[in-house]
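Bench notes, bay 3.
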Amino acid sequence: MALVALFAVLIVIFAAENLQIVTMSFLGFSLTVPMVLQVVIVYVLGMATGSSLLALLRRAIEGVRKPTADASGT
């Protein structure tokens, strides 16, 4: 429980120290947000794409490991 509380306190300190406004630009679009929000957005996108890639790799590995039916029928 103490570790979770410490982690929560560190996150609050990080957020409080990173409230500067930054501008993100990508493909002609720009967005002005606090830095802490940018970090959260990048983190969530990384989690989503990372877990999707991991699931794709697991399915590919399982497909390779499964024995295929013999086409000769014997």
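Next record in the batch:
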Amino acid sequence: MFSLVPASHFASAMYGTKIIDGNLNDWTISDLVTVGKDNGQAGGANLDKLYVAWDDQYLYIAIKTNNTQSWDVPTALG
């Protein structure tokens, strides 16, 4: 389950190009859309944070998890 982050945290600063490299260092609190609640499951469904940003060409979505093991299920957004 996710909870919404107050609009004051991200309403004016989500525009910007991101580097797609598996590292979230270029994502900021301004890009944070929602925060998940720990579901206590060790598998591949323990979602933590959802980030969204965009630029003139792309929509960027980053998902951070707290997974401690794999369910051997590939995850992709198309």
